[in-house]
Amino acid sequence: MKRFHPWILLALSLLICALTARDFLLQHRPDAIVAGPGVTEQRRLSEWMPELEGTRGDTEVYLLAGADTTGGDVLVLGGTHPNEPAAFLAAVLLVENLQVSHGRLWVIPQANHSAFSQTEPQEAHPQFFHLPDREGGERRFRMGSRLSNPLDQWPDPEITVHHPSGQSLSGNETRNLNRCFPGRREGTHTERVAWAIRHLVDSEDIKLLIDIHEASIEYPVVNAVVAHEHASDIAGMAVFNLAMEGLDYNLEPSPKNLHGLSHRELGDHCAPLYATLLETANVIQGRLRGKTSEAVLLSGDDPCYHDAGEIGMNRVHYPEEGIPFRQRVWRHIAACRELIGSYSMMHPEAPLYISGFPEGTVLLEEGCGPYLMPVP
Amino acid sequence: MSLWILGLMVAFFAFVSFRWKWPIGIGLAASALLGGLLGGTPLWAGEGRGLLRHLVEGAFVYIDPMLIMASAIFFMKCIEDSGLLSALNLRILRHLGRSPFWLSILLAAFVAFPGLLTGLTTASVLTTGAIASVPLIKLGMDRRRVGAFIAIAAIIGMVAPPINLPVMIIGGGVDMPYIGFTLPLLLLCIPTLVLSSLWLAYPSLRGVDVTPVLAELDDGPWQRHGVKLLLPLLVVLALMSGPRLFPGVWPSIGLPLTFVLGSVVALVSGDRVRLLRAARGATHQALPVMAILVGVGCFIQVMTLGGMRGELVIACLQLPDWLLFAGITVSMPLFGAVSAFGSASVLGVPFLLALLGRPEIWVGAGLSMMASLGDLMPPTALSGIFAAQVVGEPNYLKVLRHCLLPAALLAAWALVVILFAEPLSGFFAGLFGGV
Q1: Is A255 on the interface with B (CB under 8 A)?
Q2: N or C end of chain A: which has fewer CB within 10 A?
Q3: Is B295 inside any structural domain?
Q4: Is there a domain that residue B48 lies in?
């Protein structure tokens, strides 16, 4: 121990802290999301729960309302898990491109806003990813964590007890928004965010919820539409239509004994809501992945998953070229379009008519760029 | 393939730790730095792309366990000064000293108890483990064997219901709720607790005359303070168990604050506690282990960054069927060298997925015991290191040597449960109408 003089070690530690603090602070800067031509109002989640105002749990809520607002209301959540970047970006593209003629579309691209301000230790994820915009510029987005920032909620209990079911989960799940629904007004930071979303659903009379996610390729529920039992018809019709388009999706029932998930809890507590959740296959979340980098995040190409495929660990087909980011974004956009279309078809008395969905061919060939607006 | 980088990292770590006698924590952090550079990551680059950001981020992963162990050691120093430890030792010996069979088993269960409530071996080793170690040493048991007794009981406490964190982590990875695990976990824990405690303690305690030992012990603190002496322990146990007994009503304040509050109570419940000395002693004891955890955090972050973690998992999963179970038995405890919870997350989930089709609850329970054994694996070996500190053994490897056989028993029993998950599940479902 004498080799390492304490003052030298302290000086070295301070130097490393000074050098890296800038990186960590950079992740606290908000992402630029441009309100597209269809956005009629830009609100904050704290409007549905004033206690969130001034906290990192408060987040942008975009309203895209048609001239005729007598139609249905649909809520899309992105960024429930900010380490699932295609889910977040799909919600951003909806905000920047869609136009609603009938009904109202609500979009929260960063549902767990706190979790965007950190990456998860031991996952070695990049802090940011970069995409071109439609004018040749560059847009930077944060790659966050599955869990709220401990700066907003700490310490974790050893065991998370879900309210109101009493289900036990490991301690850090207390900061996982998608284990905290239906939420509690007087609860933890993450439970309050969940409660605010639930209150928005109730007070705005939301009819259809689409919570967008990604999952690792070995995860049993992937390339799937998960639907609460109330929503199984709408989800089934959407899955059929997606298959006609060549996009294979599994229709998964929302498990009744796993609590805290948006589709289960909001479906139960906000009936007659149609509660659904989307999953695509993202290598950078997987435990079997190789090198972790922004390049892998965007290309979705990882040699380890080719090996995993050979031993039957992959739950979906993993093609030679991988599953690129643009393809995952496209799948989400297409699934949102079909779910909304199915809802409108089954509820002609209160439909939601939308135009401006990004085109699959453009997304797949040119990426997200043509649909990303430049930041003013 | 980047496994060669991992090989170099391990070799570099072994060289600087054993040859140059660098502290383990610094050796791990230095080998992580080397691995990151070899993997092509620059030391510093904008937007957090540099290696330094990853090292700092990885170093923070164990901040909660570090606070728990520092506060738990401080608590133990305080109740030692207050006289509670010696009072408890005397009573344990007086009531159980003449029955070595029951002394062995009940002391092991006593040590395991905080682990049942918290899911952490450190909580067991540093509280009830420290209390139980003194009478065993007084009775003439070899202190290294006592250390092993505590370490193994703590591992079993970590696995036992109601709280088993590795199984929750494994279950969380496949959306399996923490329901129906009580019976499989009890079946894993009760036989292993009885057998390992008898193996480690009974032969040393059999035939020992407890009378002279009792005469030696000072009952002064109890005479002076009476039941009040127990208050710190009761406060800690109440704060630990309250959130489990009254979920949603009794908030969890976290273990560090629990131990600090227990220490505050110890200031007024018994003999004078020399606060500064206790705090300095606790810091001195905890610091090397904290450094190891920081180093391990850096190491695993670089493994993930460079792809070594994934390649290692794939290599385990590529084993042929007949070797898969051997792979589970070897790799999961070995990965505990990084962290038992890391083993549950990184290996436990893929192994459970590879074994889908067998009763998942039983397989998950067995895998959780395999992962928990990681707390005996150097260099982290949290259970072993703290058990060695508690019994005053400077070289924790000597404690771990006594753990080998009981640990092999635990691994073998966990493997039996995984292999025979189907008939076991069927048998108990018939017996109890489903588990």
Answers
A1: yes
A2: C
A3: yes
A4: no
Residue B180 backbone zone (phi > 0: left; psi -120 to 50: alpha; other: beta): left
Q: Is the ipTM of this complex over 0.90?
A: yes
Lowest mean pLDDT among A8-17, A98-107, B185-194: A8-17
Name the closest residue on chain A to residue B166, using Cα atoms. Answer: A170
Judged by phi (left if over 0) then psi (alpha if -120 to 50, else beta), residue A166 lies in: left
Of the pLDDT bands very low, low, confident and very high (cuts 50, 70, 90), residue B96 is: confident
Residue type, B172: G
CB contact under 8 A, A313 and B350: yes
Q: How far apart are CA A286 and CA A305, in angstroms?
A: 9
Pairing state between β A208-215 and A68-77: parallel
Q: Give the 3-state secondary structure of residue A316.
A: coil
pLDDT at A2: 52
The pair of structure tokens assigned to A344 is 């409108």
> Which residues 281-320 of A are in CB contact (within 8 Å) with B?
286-292, 294, 302, 304, 307-308, 311, 313
Contact A24 B54 (CB under 8 A): no
- Given a cut of 90, is residue B271 above it in pLDDT? yes
**Closest by Cβ to A221, choosing from B119, B175, B254:** B175
Predicted confidence band at A238 (pLDDT cuts at 50, 70, 90)?
A: very high
* Signed CA dihedral, B32, B36, B42, B44: sign only: negative
Is residue A10, in this structure, part of any structural domain at all? no
Instruction: Find the Cα–Cα–Cα–Cα dihedral A16, A19, A20, A21, rounded to 10°.
Output: 110
Give the number of domains in chain A: 1
pLDDT tens digits for range B214-236? 887 778 999 999 999 999 999 99
Domain annotation covers residue B107: yes
Q: Which of A19, A166, A287 lies nearest to residue B350, judging by beta carbons?
A: A287
- What's the CA gap between A285 and A80, in Å, rounded? 15
Q: Which parts of A230-310 fold into alpha helices (H)?
A: 232-244, 262-269, 294-299, 303-310
In a domain, B43, yes or no: no
A20 touches chain B (CB under 8 A): yes
Q: Identify the residue with better confidence: A313 or A266.
A: A266
Give the rounded percent of residues in chain A with a pLDDT score beyond 70. 99
- Print burial letters for A161-197: b (CB count within 10 Å at least 16), e (below 16): bbbebebbbbbbbbbbbbbbbbbbeebbbbbbbbbbb
Confirm if B78 and A53 have CB atoms less than 8 A apart.
Answer: no
The tokens describing A271, both together, are 């009936």
Query: Helix, strand or coil for residue A64?
Result: strand
CA separation for the pair A90, A107 (Å, rounded): 10
Provide the token pair at A210: 């689409």
Provide the number of structural domains found in chain B. 1
Q: Which domain holds residue B379?
A: 68-435
**Would residue A376 count as lying in a domain?**
no
Cα pseudo-dihedral B137, B143, B146, B152, rounded to 10: 160
Three-state DSSP at A186 gives: coil
CA–CA distances in Å: residue A68 to residues A104, A202, A344:
9, 21, 14
pLDDT digits (tens, 9 = 90+) for B57-78: 999 988 887 888 788 889 988 9
Boundaries of domain holding A367? 32-371
Instruction: Specify the CATH number for the domain of residue A65.
Output: 3.40.630
- DSSP 8-state code for residue A358: P
Q: Find out whether A184 and A191 touch, Cβ atoms under 8 Å.
A: yes
